[in-house]
Design brief:
The chain is mostly helical. It contains ten helices and three strands; from the N terminus they run βααβαααβααααα. The longest helix is centred in the middle third of the chain and has 34 residues.
C-alpha cells in the first residue's frame, strides 16, 4: 500500500538514512568490521543451535529456550545489519517508506519476543532451583511451547500497534533519518503531526515489554538467590549460580541498552548517541550471547567441539 493511501496525508515516499558515518574513507572499514560481526554472530548462534540439536544432554527446557533465543538473535541482526551494510556502499542511502516501516515492525517483533523469552528463561531457572521436584512436570514440552507462543503473541500485538500508529502520521519533509536503521524515536522527529499518542503508546509498550518482564525476572532471581544461599556446600552454591550468571549477564546488556534507547524521547540532539546504543542493541548483544552462554558451560563447550569436529555425541 502506498503511503498516500491514508488520506493522502503522507507525502514522503522514501527516507534517507545517514547511517553510522558520512566519512567516505571510514565507510569501507565499517563495512568490513560489521560484515565480520554479522558472519560471526550468525555463525555463533547457528553453532549453539547445532550443539543443542545434536547433544542429548542439552535436550532440556533451559536449552530449548536458549535455542529460541539464538534464533531471535539471528533474526534481529539480519533485520538491521544487511540493510546497514548495503547503505555503506552508495553515497546516499534511500529507503522506501514501506521498507522502512517493515523493518521497524520486524525489529520490534523480534526484540519484543526477546524481552519475554528472557522472562521465561528466568522462570525456568526459578522452577529448576526452587521447585526441583515438580520442575519436569511444570516445564514439560507443552508448557514450554505455550510460553514461547505467548511471547510471540504479545510481541506481535505490540509491534503491530506501533507500526499502525506510525503509519497514520504525516511525513511531509524533511526525510533524513539520523540513524542506521528505521526506528521509532528518529522517525518521530520527522513527523509533521502530533506524536503525543505515539509517545503514550511507546510508554505503555515499554511498560509491558520492559518494566513488567524486568519485575518478574527480579522476583524470580530473588527467590533463586534465597534458595541458593540455603545450600550448605560451596560447590553446590557455585553450580547453582553458574547456571544463572550467563542469563543475568544477557538480561543486563539487553535491558540496559533498551531502556536507555526508548526512555529518552524528548532528547532531539541524542541521535548520534542513539547510534552507539543501537549498535549495542542490534549487533553487540546478539554477537556476545553465544560466547556468554558457552564460556562457562562445559556441556555446551563439549557439544560445540563435537559439532565443529564432526564427531558423534556419546551414547
Amino acid at each position: 500500500m502506498e503511503p498516500g493511501a491514508w488520506g493522502n496525508r503522507t507525502t514522503v515516499t522514501e527516507f534517507i538514512l545517514l547511517g553510522l558515518t558520512e566519512n567516505v574513507r571510514l565507510k569501507p572499514i565499517l563495512f568490513v568490521v560489521f560484515l565480520f560481526a554479522y558472519v560471526l554472530t550468525v555463525g555463533g548462534n547457528f553453532s549453539i543451535l547445532a550443539a543443542i540439536f545434536v547433544e542429548p544432554k542439552l535436550h532440556t527446557p533451559m536449552y530449548y529456550f536458549l535455542g529460541n533465543l539464538s534464533l531471535l538473535d539471528i533474526g534481529c541482526i539480519t533485520v538491521t545489519v544487511p540493510p546497514m551494510l548495503a547503505c555503506l556502499l552508495p553515497p546516499q542511502c534511500r529507503v522506501p517508506y514501506a521498507a522502512c516501516v517493515s523493518q521497524l515492525f520486524f525489529f520490534h517483533l523480534l526484540a519484543g519476543v526477546d524481552c519475554h523469552l528472557l522472562t521465561a528463561m528466568a522462570y525456568d531457572r526459578y522452577l529448576a532451583i526452587c521447585q526441583p521436584l515438580t520442575y519436569s512436570t511444570r516445564m514439560r514440552r507443552e508448557v514450554r511451547g505455550a510460553l514461547v507462543a505467548i511471547c510471540c503473541t504479545v510481541s506481535f500485538i505490540n509491534a503491530l500497534t506501533h507500526t499502525v500508529a506510525l503509519s497514520v502520521l504525516d511525513f511531509c519533509g524533511p526525510n533524513v533519518v539520523n540513524h542506521f536503521y528505521c526506528d521509532l524515536p528518529p522517525l518521530f522527529r520527522l513527523s509533521c503531526s502530533s506524536i503525543h499518542l505515539n509517545g503514550q503508546l511507546l510508554f505503555v509498550g515499554a511498560t509491558f515489554m520492559g518494566v513488567f518482564p524486568m519485575i518478574l525476572i527480579s522476583v524470580s532471581y530473588a527467590h533463586v538467590t534465597a534458595a541458593v544461599l540455603r545450600i550448605r556446600s560451596a560447590e553446590g552454591r557455585k553450580k547453582a549460580f553458574s547456571t544463572c550468571g550467563s542469563h543475568l549477564t544477557v538480561v543486563c546488556i539487553f535491558y540496559g541498552t533498551g531502556f536507555f534507547s526508548y526512555m529518552r524521547l524528548g532528547s532531539v540532539s541524542a541521535s548520534d548517541k542513539d547510534k552507539g546504543i543501537g549498535i549495542l542493541n542490534t549487533i553487540l548483544s546478539p554477537m556476545l550471547n553465544p560466547l556468554i552462554y558457552s564460556l562457562r558451560n562445559p556441556d555446551v563447550q563439549g557439544a560445540l567441539k563435537r559439532v565443529l569436529m564432526g564427531k558423534r555425541p556419546p551414547e
